[in-house]
Structures are given as C-alpha cells and as structure tokens.
C-alpha cells in the first residue's frame, strides 16, 4: 500500500492529473487536413516498391545458392565419403612394409575403402601419379609425393577390398608398372598392369 | 532480376555437376565409338549393374593402352557382358563390389561362372570381393581354377579373414616371382595357414604367423 492510497488529497490530485482534457474537434480536423496534404511523397513510394524486390532477391538468391550447394554436395558426397580415415595398408610395392589395421568383419565393412600406400622408386622423375581402376585411371587424380630423400614417390589411396590393377604415370606421359608387384595382362586390350589385392582383417 | 539470380545459382550447380560427371565419363575422338559407348553404359546402368568398371576400362584404354575406338568399344562391351554374368553367378543379391570383383575374375582366362557360384555358395552372406580377387590372382599366377577355388573355399569355411586370404595371394605372388611353381607355392602357403587356422574357424594368429603377413611379395 502506497502513500497515495492513504492520502485522499493526494489521490484526488492524481485523478485530476490523469483526466484527459476534452477533445477539440477543430484541432483534430486541422491535424487530419495537414496530414492529408503532407502525405507520403512519390519518392518515398518508390523506395517502398524497390524494397520488396530486394527482399525477394535475397530469397531467390538464397534459394539458388541452396540448390547449388545441395546438388554439388550430393554429387561430391560419394567422392569425399570414400576418403574416410582408416588404418593404412602398404602396397606390395612398398620397400618397407608397415601395416596398421583395425579388426572388423562383415559385409558392410567390406564396402568401405582401405587406405593403401603405394611407393615407387624413381629419383629422376619430375612428376609421378598413380593410376588404377580404383581412381578411374585418372592420370592427374592422384599425384604422388616425393619422399624426403628424393629417391622415391609415395601416396596413400583409399581402395576398396579386392583385386586391383594399377601402374605409375611418370612425368604425365610414361606408364610404368610397379617392379615389386605381380603383373596381370588385360584380357580385353592385351596390355599389362600391376596387381594389388586389398583386404581387411 | 531475382529469377536471374536463382537461374545463375542453378546454372553454376549444373555446371559443377556436369564437370564432375564428365570426369567419370571419358570421351574419345571417334564419334561412332562414343555413341556406342554411351549406349553400352546406358544399357548397363538400366540393367542395374555398376558402370564404373566400364568407365574405368575406357579410361584405361585411352590413357594406358592407347587403343583405337573400335577396340575400346569391344572392351567395354566385353566387360559389360562379364558384369551381367557375374551378377547372375553371384545371385541372389550381390552388391556392386561383388559384381565388379566377379567381372574382374571372369577376365582372367580359366575362371568361369561356376567358380563364382561355388564361392558364393560358400559365403552367401559375406562379401566375396576379396575371395574372388585372391582366386583370380591365383589363377593368373598359374594355379588351376579348380585348385584355386578349392583353396579359397577351404579358407572361407575355416573362417579365414579377408586379410589372411590377401596374405595367401600376395605370398603366392612372391613365391612365383621368386621362381617357384604356382601350385607348389600354394600348397606350401596353405599348409602355413592350416597350422594357424582352427578346423572350425579362423585365428587372428594367422595374420601374424611367419610368412603370412599381407605385406606382399618380396623382391627376390
């Protein structure tokens, strides 16, 4: 309870102050007339017209970008998901074979790629890439990295379990077999490729 | 203006989609061969078969074999046929990996659909990509298809892991590269595996057993 509730004089004064004065109809008419004369200018109307398309433009742009991202994303998903981190196998070509693998079996795991390391000894090459059925024989898809001692080239590629044919593309033009791996002759084209069999423990 | 922005975004996405798709669909200079390849790939896709082996073969023919158009078409047609045969042999529900492995195995002279059916019968619920790969490589090394199939089936039935099978295949490769006969090499390596595989199931010790690591063939 406040002082104004207890004091009748104070409460009467507050009530008087709260009471609105009677409306002056003439004053209302003058305000309405002035507002009608000074209503929104054409320039301001133009701004309002432009403002809507700006909002629309943003929506369409966002929709376009979202559609682009969705399509590219779905497309790339299959490519990039194959690069899941996992233990690494060293291909038969590796001079020093080290292998780390997890233990998992079953059909679902068999459908996952196994990182496989390939090593190629060639100190004179300027560029070496690995080509095989696991990367669609794309000559520029999987470049190999020069080892620090400058004598070899190395790369780790996710490879599905099974038997694969591959080789090395030296200086973008010379297809070379892996000297440390077995060879297989292509039954359809008569050419040879190196063989690697990839498994999972 | 607003629709142009949307169209531009869509065009960019379609360009990206097309560019990525183009990477897996190599084209050759011969227009007739291109048309035939397109037809083969479409028919294979429509049949529910994986088309990657065909695309890969075409790219291989271009990049490595430098084959002429008609030869590339013939190769693509041959692998499409093998994919279909492999799917039928690996029925009822082979996955793309199995079909691809089956087609690859059928590309090794001597491997027939009956070998695929036998392997599938021994492993109806597991992927057979690795067993088929090992089978193909054993036959490629000179082991008879029947002996190679029997060995792979024996390993499957005794619960050998895919890695143990890979070790077998790689070690036989190594032995053959060293000058040993393929059949003898397989016998020796199988005896090594038998020593570590339990009669009714596999043993992790096999992978670690001497001479059974899957590190691959050693240079003689």
Sum up the structure in keywords.
heterodimer; A: about 200 residues; alpha+beta; Immunoglobulin-like; 2 domains; five-stranded antiparallel β-sheet; B: about 220 residues; mainly alpha; 11 helices; about 0% strand; globular; disordered C terminus
Q: Compute the CA-based radius of gyration of chain B.
A: 21 Å
Tertiary shape of chain A: rod-shaped
Order of helices and strands of chain B: HHHHHHHHHHH
Mean pLDDT of chain B: 83
What class do helices, strands and sheet pairing of chain B give? mainly alpha
Q: Can you tell me the CATH architecture of the largest domain in chain A?
A: Sandwich
Q: In total, how many beta strands of chain B?
A: 0
CATH topology of the largest domain in chain A: Immunoglobulin-like
Largest sheet of chain A: 5 strands, antiparallel
Helix content of chain A: 25-40%
